[in-house]
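1st attempt posting a full record on here, be nice pls
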Amino acid sequence: MWPTHWPAVARDIAEALDAAIVAARASDAAALTEATEELAALPAEQVGAVLAGVIRELLETLHPDGLTGEDVQDVLTRCARAAALWFPAVDVDSLVTVLTGALGVADVEENPRRPERAVEAAILVIADLLSAAEVPADGYVRRALDEIARAETVEMP
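the predicted structure (as tokens):
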């Protein structure tokens, strides 16, 4: 499913991310926990960049004319309420951290509230945004990974 020219780490991130999104969209807490553990075992900086890229692009899809504070609050509220129904371990502080971190409003590395829950929270936000936009995840994941690969190969002047 994923491009064969991608490095193994990129394919591993894409596969684990896909499994986590499928689990979250199916409201399967056990599968989400397993998939997020797989993601957490991969290079944290790359996983974080992919998750943030997917979140940013989904927000752009849903809010092409710009994002307001009310829009962010709506995402947090909708995501927390929906996740709480099937995933009682949802950590609202982590949802806030990953969303504001993806937007560049807060530096997640300098101000981690619950870093061990960040991957899980990002998946919950992504699943919520995918449902709201009514779009499949694979294109967003591909573009996030391709952008990271492009950024890593561009020489700095």
